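Batch 3, record 17
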Amino acid sequence: MSQNLHPGLNLGASHGDAHQQSELSVFGFWVFLMSDLITFGVLFATYAASSTPIAMAGGPGPAALFDLTSTGMQTAFLLASSLTCGMASLALKYREGPRRIALWLAVTALLGAGFLALELRDFADMIAKGATPMRSGWLSSLYALVGLHGLHITAGLVWIVVLLLLIWRRGVTDLIKTRLLIFALYWHFLDLVWIGIFSVVFLRGLA
Amino acid sequence: MRRLSVLTILLIAASPAFSQGFLTPLGPVAEDQRAHLIRVTAVTMIAIVPVLIGVPLILWRYRRGRGAAYRPGFEFSLPLEITMWGVPTAIIIVLGGWLWQSTHKLDPYRPLGPDPLQVQVIGLNWKWLFLYPDQNVASIGTLVIPEGQPVQLKLTTDTVMQSFMVPALAGQIYAMPGMVTDLNLMANAEGEATGRNTQFNGVGFADQSIAVRAVDDAGWQAWVEGAGNAPALDSASYAQLGRRGSASDAASALDLPDSRMRLSEPDLFHQVVSSYHDGQPIAPDQQPGAPGYQPEAMK
Amino acid sequence: MKLLGNLNWDVTPFSDAINDPSTNTFVAAGAASLVIIGAVSVLILLTWFRLWRPLWRDWLTSADHKRIGVMYIVLALVMLARGVAEGAVMRGHQAMALNGGPLSADHFSELFSTHGTIMILFVAMPLVTGLINIVVPLQIGARDMAFPVMNQVSLGLTAAGAALIMVSLVIGRFETGGWTAYPPYTGKVFSPGEGPDYWIWSVVPAGLGSMLSGINFAVTIYKCRAPGMTYMRMPLFTWTALCTAIMMIYAMPPVTVSSLMLALDRYAGFHFFSNDLGGNMMNYANIFWMFGHPEVYILVLPAYGVWSEVAATFSAKQLYGYVSLVTATMSIAVISFTVWLHHFFTMGQSASVNIAFGIATMIIAVPTGVKVYDWMATLWRGRIRMTVPVIYLTGFFILFVIGGLTGVILANPTIDYQVHNTLFLVAHFHNVLIPGVLFGMLAGIHYWFPKVFGFRLDETWGARAAGLWVVGFCLTFLPLYVLGLMGMPRRSPSFTDPAYLPMEYLAAFGAVVILGALAATFTTYIVSIRHRKWLAVPLGDPWDGRTLEWATPAPVPEWNFAVIPEVSSRDAFALEKEGGTPYAPVSRYADITLPRRTTMGLTVCVATTGTGFALVWHIWWLVILCFTGLLLTMIARAFATNTEQIIPAAEVARQHRRWLDAIAQNTGITRDAECTSANRGLAAPDEVIR
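Prediction for the assembled complex:
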């Protein structure tokens, strides 16, 4: 049996059964992420197709709405949370104990919540300026793309809470090890999607 | 085989049942489309006839109990593989070349000659409105064109997406609100044909037909001049056309003697297209063709 | 706030029939009554025969891939009955539709919209998903799917979509813009009613369910193969299932997204596809067909898999051109993602774009043609038995190439300009979907039915059904080609040209034959259940099969294989039989771990149906209730313990040895006695003639 059962972080033989058992689930989740990427891809394409004066329908455009300071901070929050999520994975791999894992997860959740708070504040600002998703086709596609990512982050936060509860109740069992691996994939994936959004939507929008 | 299939298609096409389809063409585009159909069918037959003949033969010859040759281990043959992949590939190369050439040649955006007659087409629920900006004529549900002269249609709709089709002349193209598509066509001879919308757009869909007439020069002049005395098509009467109903419903609502109106606003087509781009929302009661449309409430 | 949202007493077809008695409203009320009578009689029968307990224990809560597969197929057959009935009503209406017709235009458009949606998403998809579910783990030597509970959830989501479509027959009206639901026609401005909402909330769960199924199939095939089952040893059906799974993973998200975007337009006033404020309906067409085109190959590839198995088994030969078939399957799967634009050559893009997509479309004809020739070469110099699957295969050969011909014709933008949106197109896609997908699935059901239930299907009734399907198809759909060439548009509630009438009459007669075919299909199942003792094949190999699934008892035990087989070649079971070493005794049995029963799928199904229904009627409290329930169910699952059951080795050994003993006491039959009661599922070799 080779060392690497699936792409990404493997637990290694010292984790016994968990190392083998996670193969199916982690691989399956990779496949799901590829599918989810298509979902985002469709929305990216819609956004690109809607980045025209016609689709903006005389409404506010990127220059009037985007705040690079805020989105830059969101990016920083999310990148940092990816780092702490990675620390949680390392704590798992090197058996640093449930407390350490839970701590890194909690920090990840806080950073994620910070990202979400900033994003919601941006949305509120935009709506205050009259830039609701009902204003133009371009705004509809903007809210859909960024909002879908935000929904994913929200789901991730719920997921962290569930993981923390499970670790608290049951400790780091084989099953929870697998779930931690999967969650890490999910979180890094969202980071990657955000980099896409930040570049394609915000940076290009102001370029 | 090829000759046979060509013959079959021509025989079928000659029957009066096809008088409205493109198998009885009235113009050069539909003629080419028919020719293309025939040659594509004929060449594809090379790949299909072996199946149609071979399958019954094999099933009969190698049925169990007949004692014909039995080769249970036969699972590969290089010459056979080359034929199986090669023949269809060759056919597709030939067809692909033809496709390339005919798609360019029959591109609906390509004018069929210099200085084509300009006709603007607005799709409404459930009728077509034809505007002749150079002649100041409008016509509801009837398209009259001079024979032998290229015609360029510019199409849009003032409701949902529709598809404009006159099989005997040139096939179809979509028309969409706020957008303009082109269709170039020409009639070789005097004649009549039927056109339609083919994109389902509600309960009146089946009524949305077009009477197409290709007429000679004298007929064309007379038709254009006759419109001079017809009621005017301005924004008020246009608003009436936006109501749901067939061409004849509209003609009787506007009290028209025939399909013709006098086009008093030469810019109407562009107004209709740009009405979707003015940055203002269109309320359901101001959207022509919508069930809640109430032109009286406008502006 | 209204407690029941937009619901009131006037939304049922019964109130329509009372307020406005006419043929039109009576047809609608009759259909609604059929749904209610059908549902009530199922409930009564279940109670009468005391089947609630087995239904609950063995089916609704089972995570066994075979039972989930059977439930998919039962769902598909129920929906097929409705879809065929709707088709027949439409053909009947159109035959009388010169300047009118018995049904109203609105009613007719609901019919073609539900017919299309049902046939693609709730007949063809569940048939394919069901068959893959049943067959793939058996063919690759796995105990179950990779994710058995997710499998149940997929079924639950699909069933929720189907349930909502059924509800739309009784409460309210369905969408009227066809199965593609193109906006802006389906937007709030032009379709203010509940119709498009029914469509959206049927399609979204079905799309999600299929995407999850795709993940499940792909992971199962990648990761759960028996030792030695390398990719190039996998049976062809498994190969096609793999390609279909990959396509489901990538092609289902677009339709989910486009439907949800349409929902945002309708519910929240977004402007994705609206006429005003920068909406763009062309985006919808693109996204929808990014799903829609791969979808046809999602459906037809597994049918190709069935033909590969059927052709080899019933001609008692090795499959010809395995590598070619695998290559062709993969090529089709890949190219099918690059052709979506041919669904709207007429949207006004440049000639060069049309050429690129036209040629890509034609290229698919090459691997498809190769497949057809490969199956012919498989039959060549075989010993062909004309069983029911082979009758379907014959019908497929002859009719599918006609569909292929018209496909190549339609791939030419210049011709498409003339026949797009006409009955020619309708004839073409029925021509590929009925002889391609439906015949394939019916043949597959006939072929694998004994594996699942332990008895064969009646050959006489099966052959009658197959014959009627073939004849019915020809009579119904070949005339539509002619009508299309005459210029008759699809979706026409009425017409004015009497020249259409002869072909319309022929097609209507064909629809009656198809109704007969449907009846014969159901009769086959009923007759076979009655004669199940006579048809029993408990030893598990009724057709002298070649692949792993036939090396198990029929019905297959829940754990599929007493010990996971070791595979050393393609057609492993056939080679063992040739070498005289099948059914080797097992020295050591081990405990087997299987998923425990769970109500997860059922809960998801109920909560999703509830959410969808509440969304359609704007009953917001119910939306919140059901959706929260859905989320909590999923979160609660994370805390579930004790999700597995263990079958003791002794039990496995007892059942397996009993089966081996029965085989040892049976002499087997040659293929001459295949369709007689002597066939108990043990194959004896023919005297060797080479």
